[in-house]
Amino acid sequence: MRRDLQPLRAGDEISTGLRILTARRADKSADRVRAINRLQAQLLEYFPALERAFDYSRSKGALLLLTKHRTPDGIRRTGQARLHAWLKKHGTRSSAAVAAAAVAAAKSQHTTVAAQHVGERIVAALAQEIITLNEELATLDALISEKVTEHQHTEVLLSMPGFGPVLAAEFLGATGGDLAVFQTADRFAGVVGLAPAPRDSGRISGNHHRPRRYDRRLLRVFYLSGLSALKSCTASRTYYDRKRLEGKTHIQAMLSLARRRLNVLWAMLRDGTTYTTVPRARPMAA
After folding, report:
1. In whole angstroms, what is the distance from residue 151 CA to residue 15 CA?
2. Dihedral angle sign, alpha carbons of residues 126, 217, 169, 226
3. How far apart are the first and last CA of the chain?
4. What is the CA radius of gyration of the chain?
5. Residue 100 near residue 80, CB atoms below 8 Å
6. Diameter of the chain by CA atoms?
């Protein structure tokens, strides 16, 4: 009687293990984002020049720098040469560039903010926390990459442009490793949130919207894999560009691409075939 209920997906042992690992990875990723935001907010309190100098979500050397050198006067006293030597000793890539950027930031600020000694301790703790989270995420990625190879559908999933070990693991963990429970590709698209749901009322018909209840993990998998495929898959890029020319926004075009990729992946898993690129037909010579 109800149309909003999703089929029960128990999942095999491998898929259940992947669901546990990917859920743990999602938690750690969220913790890392929060820690980086707190670190940047704290640096803005007393050392805004250094906050602007680095992308702390990417630069490991900048995080290592903050564990010991994190105040303008302290960095100026240390000097660029000794900073470079210290960073290089601890295995930092581009240690010279990191040291130069830090010293330039320190020279641009000669004002000592009140309670700076309190803020720098928090920054040091947050930098070390982010480094630890990066190591834990790397360990989880290695475990996921090893575990996902044990599943029977992994070869098919990894052949699809845009799918890597982590997204393949998230897909298997969310679906239980078996699409037969969804019965059809259209039913599966409704669960993912890529099939419009009618909201007709009275004489109004054709009023379609995204369903209110859908699996956000699966939608994220198809959306992110589509974004990645735009860089490496000519067919995906061509389809996306065509949708943009039709007047669709970026989000609308990406959702259309995700639905198309869902249909392709459904057929691949149903037939047990890997993805192959169909070459374009050459125009016949006159």
Report:
1. 8
2. negative
3. 61
4. 25
5. yes
6. 80
- List the Cα angle 125/130/134 in 5-degree steps: 150
Strand, coil or helix: 198 = strand
Query: Which of left, alpha, beta for 8 (phi over 0: left; psi -120 to 50: alpha)?
Result: beta
Instruction: Please answer whether residues 206 and 229 qualify as being in contact, where contact means their C-beta atoms are separated by less than 8 angstroms.
Output: no
Q: Specify which residues 204 forms β-bridges with.
A: 201
Residue 60 near residue 131, CB atoms below 8 Å: yes
Task: Provide mean pLDDT across the span 20-47.
Answer: 94
Tokens of 219: 């939608």
Q: Which residues contact 22 (CB under 8 A, 6 or more apart)?
A: 144, 166, 169, 170, 173
- pLDDT band at residue 237 under the 50/70/90 scheme: very high
pTM above 0.85, yes or no: no
For residues 250 and 261, give the distance between their C-alpha atoms in angstroms, rounded to a whole number.
16
Distance of alpha carbon 267 from alpha carbon 264, whole angstroms: 5
Domains, the chain, in order of start with CATH, read 18-147 (1.10.287), 151-271 (no CATH)
Least confident of 2-16, 19-33, 48-62: 2-16
Instruction: Give the up-direction half-sphere exposure of residue 235: CA atoms within 13 A in the CB hemisphere.
Output: 13
Counting every residue, how long is the chain? 286
| Residue with token string 């992947």 | 18
Residue among 191, 195, 171 at smallest CA distance from 182: 191
> Rounded to an integer, what distance in angstroms lies between the CA atom of residue 198 and that of residue 221?
24
Residue 282 has pLDDT above 60, yes or no: no
* 223: nearest Cα among 197, 274, 259: 259
Amino acid identity, position 232: S
